[in-house]
Design goal:
A hairpin with a 2-residue loop joins strand 8 and strand 9. The chain has three domains: 84 residues, Phosphorylase Kinase, domain 1; 175 residues, Orthogonal Bundle (Transferase(Phosphotransferase), domain 1), CATH 1.10.510; 129 residues, Mannose-Binding Protein A, Chain A. Strands 11, 12, 13, 14, 15, 16 and 17 form a seven-stranded mixed sheet that branches. The chain has a five-stranded antiparallel sheet with strand order 1-2-3-5-4, with helices on one face. The protein has a three-stranded antiparallel sheet with strand order 6-8-9. The relative contact order is 0.06. By secondary structure, the protein is α+β, with helices and mostly antiparallel strands. Helices cover 38% and strands 19% of the residues. Helix 3 runs antiparallel to helix 9, helix 5 runs antiparallel to helix 8 and helix 8 runs antiparallel to helix 9.
Length: 460
């Protein structure tokens, strides 16, 4: 495009190009300011393309938010529609991340502001449908959502046919891939993909288009903490909440996502709970079952190869029977099988293996009245335990009653544990050290005094 093509704009350079048009950096001579000029061009443009271009301009015209690129002007020149918008001197989020190592606090801040902008658009009847790092400009440290070319506008005439897919596959929700009805929760899913990518430097799913679409529909994303243990559990929970396959299991709107991100940044408990869906359990427990099979085969081969030990004499047996032994540590499977017939068995399994996944080895699981107690020989802070507890629906920490103390001391003695930190829904953890009991110790440094923790839990 030459300078003479537009009377009121000085065209400086092209800064972007898409299937239906080009974006230029220009100077608006009437309003005396720099602008981004988007012009529709091309020989294969259809009436539907023109309608979509108008749709993008109309969507942007409805929005006035500090984290959304602002529309300035709209018109037509030589038969081609154009509009001008705010010129962002920075780069898009994709390039911004590649050129900088973002701190966790900055990642949370960026996504929180983007989610606020998306919620504002939703409140004004606009679903973006193509959220991705390339469509988020960075003005310094401030993100600006742009490119509403595929936006769905409430009350506007439907431009797409049933079964037509829109968006960028890597950031599409399952319902978008299946060409089903989309709503604001589809944008929430895309925000989850962006958060996943910011945290791990990878997308949840990748590969060729057909493979990626199948993964989005059928495969659970790898937990972000599998990429890096430095990612906080609560932030992982927020991310996976956005990426739920079932629409109903995601945040109902972007405002709730913003609220949890704020809670996380302030160090408060988040509201998101990890879903105990069958697909989630299937992925986790298929690995457990497979490991159990391999272990059984290994034991069988050991018994075949090595001769059995000689039987003890009668006198030795009598002598042994007089000695009270500390029971040996039970295997993980046997600890869980004690509660196989309970209604909360699935929740217990998930809590048990979450502790294991986060390097907290559970050595005993027992029940007293309506409470369950998970005993670990691994030190942990109350914040770590609360993070796991807050990940489950319908679950809460129990209150530690006086009647349970003899039971707890007996449990600790069984495992030769003298110092233990008991965690529940009290404001401060309880420290048991020998015969002493400290109910007022609230500092996280309590773990230094203990080599074990006892987690008290029950379902509502």
């Amino acid at each position: 495009m030459s300078q003479s093509d537009f009377q009121f704009f000085d065209i400086q350079k092209m800064i972007g190009q898409g299937a239906m048009g080009k974006v230029y950096q220009a100077f608006d001579k009437k309003l005396q300011r720099d602008v981004a000029l988007k012009v529709m061009s091309g020989e294969q443009i259809t009436d539907k393309d023109v309608a979509r271009f108008y749709r993008e301009a109309n969507a942007m015209a409805k929005l006035n938010h500090p984290n959304i690129v602002q529309l300035y002007n709209f018109g037509q020149h030589q038969g081609y529609p154009f509009f001008t918008m705010e010129l962002i001197p920075g780069t898009n989020l994709k390039d911004y991340v590649e050129n900088k190592r973002l701190k966790l606090v900055e990642i949370v801040s960026i996504l929180q502001k983007v989610a606020q902008a998306v919620h504002y658009a939703h409140e004004n009847g606009i679903i973006h449908r193509d959220l991705k790092p390339e469509n988020i400009m960075m003005n310094g440290r401030e993100p600006k959502v742009m490119d509403f070319g595929l936006a769905k506008v409430e009350g506007a005439k439907q431009l797409s046919r049933s079964g037509e897919i829109f968006g960028t596959i890597a950031y599409m929700s399952p319902e978008q891939v299946l060409a089903n009805k989309v709503d604001k929760r589809s944008d929430v899913y895309a925000l989850g993909v962006i958060l996943y990518e910011l945290l791990t430097k990878k997308r949840p799913f990748y590969g060729k288009a057909s493979k990626m679409m199948q993964q989005i529909i059928e495969k659970e994303p790898l937990s972000p903490r599998k990429h890096s243990k430095k990612i906080p559990i609560d932030l992982e929970t927020i991310c996976l909440k956005c990426l739920e396959k079932k629409v109903a299991n995601r945040y109902a709107n972007a405002k709730l996502l913003v609220a949890d991100l704020k809670k996380f940044s302030l160090g408060k408990p988040i509201k998101a709970k990890r879903s105990l869906s069958s697909s989630y359990l299937g992925v986790r427990f298929s690995k457990i079952i497979l490991s159990t099979i391999y272990l059984s085969i290994a034991f069988f081969l050991v018994f075949l190869i090595f001769p059995t030990a000689k039987k003890k004499s009668i006198n030795t047996k009598i002598a042994d029977s007089k000695i009270k032994k500390i029971p040996k540590e039970k295997s993980k499977n046997s600890l869980l099988q004690l509660f196989a017939n309970t209604s909360e068995f699935n929740a217990l399994k998930n809590i048990f293996y979450d502790f294991s996944n986060y390097d907290k080895e559970i050595i005993d699981v027992v029940k007293f009245k309506n409470c369950y107690y998970f005993l670990s020989a691994t030190p942990a802070s109350r914040f770590e335990i609360r993070n796991i507890a807050n990940s489950y629906q319908n679950a809460r920490l129990a209150k530690l009653g006086k009647d349970v103390m003899p039971f707890i001391r007996e449990l600790l003695a069984k495992h030769k544990i003298t110092s233990c930190l008991v965690l529940n829904n009290a404001e401060k953890p309880r420290l048991i050290d020998g015969d002493k009991q400290d109910d007022s110790y609230g500092g996280d440094l309590a773990v230094i005094k203990c080599k074990a923790f006892l987690y008290e839990w029950r379902l509502d």
